[in-house]
TrEMBL record:
Species of provenance: Streptomyces doebereineriae
Pfam families per record: AHSA1 (PF08327)
InterPro entries hit by this protein: ASHA1/2-like_C, START-like_dom_sf
Membership in a protein family: Belongs to the AHA1 family.
Protein name, as recorded: SRPBCC domain-containing protein
All residue ranges annotated as the Activator of Hsp90 ATPase homologue 1/2-like C-terminal domain in the record: 12-132
Top-level lineage group: Bacteria
Length: 142
């Protein structure tokens, strides 16, 4: 199995970063403006992207406000189905938050996997910018 593992430091409290990955306004501020975000275990994050024929759905598997959000992809590109996405947030001893992100369960390292890896890296620069400035900078806009 192929796995993406990224880490970024953000100059904001873990609760602020958590809201950016777990609320409609937050996700629309850095990821996609086509965000319908459910709350609690079992709910869905339904994300739409320009040119995509369908919404992608991430089922929430675990929630620990300000600390962790774990999801499984249940609708989207076939290579993404049943992959797992985890945001683990930890207060940085020097202030701010360390975000550890894992997207696991890809069948192989192929061209799509390499593009997804680069895509996530780009999105996390948007997440950092949005959380630190409060100015929306979504990667995808509808």
């Amino acid at each position: 199995m192929a796995e993406i593992a990224l880490q970024i430091r953000i100059a904001a409290e873990p609760e602020t970063v958590y809201r950016a990955v777990s609320t409609p306004e937050g996700v629309a501020g850095w990821f996609t403006t086509g965000a319908e975000i459910g709350e609690g275990v079992g709910a869905l994050h339904r994300l739409s992207f320009p040119g995509a024929p369908m919404a992608w759905e991430f089922r929430i598997d675990e929630v620990a406000a300000g600390k962790r959000l774990s999801q499984t992809v249940v609708a989207g590109p076939p290579q993404w189905i049943d992959t797992e996405i985890v945001y683990a947030l930890e207060a940085d001893s020097e202030g701010g938050t360390v975000v550890r992100f894992d997207h696991t369960g890809f069948a192989e390292v192929d061209d799509m996997f390499r593009e997804v890896t680069m895509g996530w890296a780009g999105m996390f620069t948007r997440l950092k910018e949005y959380v630190e400035t409060g100015t929306p900078a979504p990667y995808f806009t509808l």
